[in-house]
């Protein structure tokens, strides 16, 4: 028999952490609610480059979930979803137990796209799950060797700048231009920082195969070595497509402005696993979705109309430069320096403090 909940939150992504914080302040009374998460910690992605650069300790970059859940009146269940049966509102965990929710909310993030391997000896380290990524990089830091990073978005750039001083040589590959979708002036600033730190940047160089100890772009060998970090964008997971939920053409879960599945309105989906019209997948939008989600899940029981999510029109982007400063863009403006770094540090620490019940005193 499946344990049954009024609301089952699956995954402790950025949006659900915000929901828990809001419910800790204003609990949803007389409802049985649970959070399912593989780990008792939720990592805050914005601080991971700073952690790798040695500016933070691990416990400063993560939120301890069981106390936050207790404060929010939510049961914490440690486990990993394996299968979702959307029609039956049921999930099966990897350990084969079943959970059921009258309402389900999915915020499970995603994993990076991996290249094809052909008898390759290269150790691949995807940036997610964060806990596994951090363990691998920590092991590498004890025995430095050349590293290639595949993925030229904000995460790839920040990771390259964080690891530059710890790695004998570092190469960064992107399929198109660096920081696609960001302002050209931010790209220029990032390129200058990367070059100053001795990082080889390969734009318009899509890595598709690993053969032996070589990275291949089509038929061309573009790098040789043994360690590769995959920081390519989110890729769809099989369980989304097998769930019965409506997915977009790439395979991400379709979600509406009220953050509900159009095919299964009793299921909400937010963060990187969801496609919401006009919304780039990033941590900033996941956090903003959390604010709307908390209210909407509460309104389910009060019959209030559900609120609609609107993506930020000109969000502030702050990229850590690996040396305590940051590159920033806001609207049409870009800048860089230690002040921007201090601002990023303030915002990131504030997020952790705000969501860590053990730090509220
Ligand atoms: C190095 C790095 C730096 C970044 N910096 C920034 C930044 O500064 N600003 C920004 O906006 N974005 C940034 N991003 C992007 C950002 O990390 C993602 O967009 C964001 O994490 C998405 O959050 P989410 O809420 O979808 O879920 P996530 O934060 O990815 O969390 C998903 C959670 O679901 C859990 N989960 C996964 N699978 C299952 C399962 N099967 N069952 C149960 N639980 C599951 C995971 O354990 C995890 O806790 C960065 C990314 C990286 C890699």
Automatic annotation (TrEMBL):
InterPro entries: FAD/NAD-bd_sf (IPR036188), FAD/NAD-binding_dom (IPR023753), NADH-Q_oxidoreductase (IPR051169). The keyword Membrane does not apply. Residues 5-290 form the FAD/NAD(P)-binding domain. Keywords: FAD, Flavoprotein, Oxidoreductase. It comes from the Bacteria. This is FAD-dependent oxidoreductase. The keyword Flavoprotein applies. SUPFAM superfamilies: FAD/NAD(P)-binding domain. Its cofactor is FAD.
């Amino acid at each position: 028999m499946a344990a049954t909940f009024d609301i089952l939150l699956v995954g402790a992504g950025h949006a659900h952490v915000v929901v828990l914080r809001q419910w800790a302040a204003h609990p949803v009374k007389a409802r049985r609610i649970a959070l399912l998460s593989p780990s008792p910690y939720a990592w805050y992605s914005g601080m991971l480059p700073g952690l790798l650069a040695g500016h933070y300790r691990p416990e400063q970059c993560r939120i301890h979930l069981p106390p936050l859940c207790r404060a929010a009146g939510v049961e914490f269940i440690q486990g990993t979803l394996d299968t979702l049966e959307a029609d039956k509102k049921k999930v099966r965990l990897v350990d084969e137990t079943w959970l059921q929710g009258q309402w389900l909310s999915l915020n499970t993030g995603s994993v990076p796209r991996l290249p094809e391997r052909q008898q390759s000896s290269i150790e691949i380290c995807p940036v997610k799950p964060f806990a596994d990524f951090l363990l691998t990089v920590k092991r590498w830091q004890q025995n430095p060797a050349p590293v290639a990073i595949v993925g030229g978005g904000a995460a790839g750039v920040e990771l390259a700048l964080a690891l530059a001083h710890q790695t004998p040589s570092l190469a960064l590959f992107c399929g198109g231009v660096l920081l696609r979708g960001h302002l050209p002036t931010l790209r220029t600033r990032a390129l200058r920082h990367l070059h100053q730190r001795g990082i080889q940047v390969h734009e318009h160089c899509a890595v598709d195969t690993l053969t032996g100890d070589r990275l291949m772009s089509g038929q061309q060998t573009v790098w040789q070595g043994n360690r590769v970090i995959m920081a390519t964008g989110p890729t769809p997971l099989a369980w989304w497509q097998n769930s019965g939920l409506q997915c977009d053409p790439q395979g991400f879960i379709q979600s509406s402005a009220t953050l509900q599945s159009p095919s299964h309105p009793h299921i909400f989906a937010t963060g990187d696993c969801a496609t919401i019209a006009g919304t780039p997948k990033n941590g900033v939008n996941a956090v903003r979705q959390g604010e709307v989600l908390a209210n909407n899940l509460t309104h389910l029981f009060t019959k209030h109309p559900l609120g609609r999510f609107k993506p930020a029109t000109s969000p502030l982007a702050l990229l850590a430069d690996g040396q305590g400063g940051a590159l920033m863009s806001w609207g049409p403006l870009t800048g860089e320096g230690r002040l921007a770094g201090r601002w990023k540090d303030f915002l990131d620490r504030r997020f952790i403090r705000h969501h860590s019940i053990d730090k509220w005193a």
